[in-house]
Amino acid sequence: MSWVVIALVIVAIFAIVLIKLSQKKGAKPTEFPYKKLDVLFSPAERSFLGALNQAVGSNAQVFGKVRVADVIAPKKGMSRSDWQKAFNKISGKHFDYLLCNKNDLSVLCAIELNDSSHNSKKRKGRDKFLEGACQSANVPLIQVSAKATYNIHEIQQSIAGYLPGSQSQNTKKEPIISSAEQQPQEVYKICPKCSSAMVKKTAKKGKNIGNEFWACSAFPKCRHIEAIKE
Q1: pLDDT score at 180
Q2: Whether residue 220 has a cis bond before it, omega within 30° of 0
Q3: Torsion sign across C-alpha atoms 110, 69, 78, 133
Q4: pLDDT interval class at 183 (50, 70, 90)
Q5: Domain tally for the chain?
Q6: Cα 226 from Cα 189, distance rounded (Å)
Q7: CA-CA distance, 56 to 62, in Å (whole number)?
């Protein structure tokens, strides 16, 4: 009798093992293998976004990370294959920032923030294509070099011709002004640790007394400070 029980136990174990193996073999991969990213913008992109919002004020709406294919499209009259090829070239690209009219959200201009990664041969080819595509679609494209700090007045000058009500509004691309203007130089800087705005302060004690420095506006939650370089 004991041999019968042992045999039944062995059969049961064998059956369980077979079931487990069949389930494992037929198991489907995770249907939605995704995760949420921490932030939408890099620190450099977030820094310029803060300056751009200040420069634009209430004159326009700023959008970020906008798909190029949501702004321009291949022209009509092309063959299906040529249309698809043209669409594929823009479907995987995006504009860093887009300025739109607040009333109807019509596109005013696109803005690209160029850091050191734009110096590579592949990125230069991408930038050249995007510039040509925008020119063909009559979408003004402004190129801005990434910086540690931004002059609000310079940004305002670069976008002034594209804002609603501007007499000089047209499709001509205007470069960022590089020379100093005879107007107050308002500077904007983002804290690299917490992305809050940084403000200028003057040391009231210590060896640097009287000297200006950058301090995070989120103090005391964030205590990041930087010396102001001449």
Answers
A1: 36
A2: yes
A3: positive
A4: very low
A5: 2
A6: 11
A7: 8
In a domain, 175, yes or no: no
Q: At what angle do helices 152-159 and 43-56 cross, to 10 degrees?
A: 70
Cβ proximity of 98 and 63 under 8 Å: yes
Contact between 150 and 111 (Cβ < 8 Å): no
Burial class (CB in 10 A: 0-12, 13-18, 19+), 230: exposed
What are the pLDDT digits (tens) for 194-203?
777 788 888 8
What rounded mean pLDDT belongs to the chain? 82
Tokens standing for residue 100: 């739109």
Closest CA to 187 of 147, 150, 144: 150
Task: State the DSSP code for 95.
Answer: E
Residue 209 lies in a domain: yes
pLDDT in tens, 48-91: 998 999 899 898 999 999 999 999 999 999 999 999 999 999 99
Give the residue, 21 or 185, on which the prediction is more confident. 21
Owning domain of residue 210: 191-227
Residue 141 lies in a domain: yes
Has residue 64 been placed in a domain? yes
Q: How far apart are CA 47 and CA 52, in angstroms?
A: 9
Its sign, for the CA torsion 135, 138, 139, 144, is positive
